[in-house]
Amino acid sequence: MSASMFIHDTKEVKELQNKINKLKLNSSNQKKLLESIGVEIESQIEERFATQTDTSGSRWADISAKTRAYYSKKGIGGSLLSRTRQLRDTIESQVSSDSLLVGATKIYAATHNYGDGKRNIPKREFIGLSPQNVIEIESIIDDFVEANLKKAR
To answer: Relative to the CA of 103, which of 1, 35, 41, 146 has its CA 20 to 30 Å away?
Structure first.
């Protein structure tokens, strides 16, 4: 991914990494598990675009009156950060046998995710993990382990 941003070095991610590492999976199984987690995180991000909420469940800041007037004048409609889907459609995950990267490839993704005070662009976080997201990922890990135990029997 070029011009990407990633979820990394958070307490939650480190805990999930430790949980996966303790499983001592072979590289093929670890890659399958990471692929499943990547699909889930992409789905979680897609949900944030649909609900226009951040990882804490708070609504994104609305567009400014100036931007609203510009859009109205130009006849531009659609929902916040999804008018053209150009940003939303670049959400992707990449997996190797020992890593998972999830991000957005648009150069301006970080500006919207973290905000930019100098340009008066509010934070509209779409990439990140909520506590519920972590629970869902832990469930994927647990289900993966259970399915592989059944195969081994």
So the answer is: 146
Q: Do the Cβ atoms of 124 and 81 come closer than 8 Å?
A: yes
Neighbours of 92 (CB within 10 A): 15
d(CA 66, CA 119): 13
Higher-pLDDT residue of 73, 10: 73
State which H helix or E strand residue 95 sits in. Answer: strand 91-95
Model confidence at 120: pLDDT above 80? yes
Question: What CA–CA distances, in Å, run from 12 to 35, 49, 142?
Answer: 18, 22, 16
Burial of 124 (0-12, 13-18, 19+ CB in 10 A): buried
What are the residue ranges of helices labelled H in the chain?
11-23, 27-51, 65-74, 109-114, 131-152
pLDDT at 153: 62
Q: Give the whole-angstrom CA distance, residue 150 versus residue 115.
A: 46
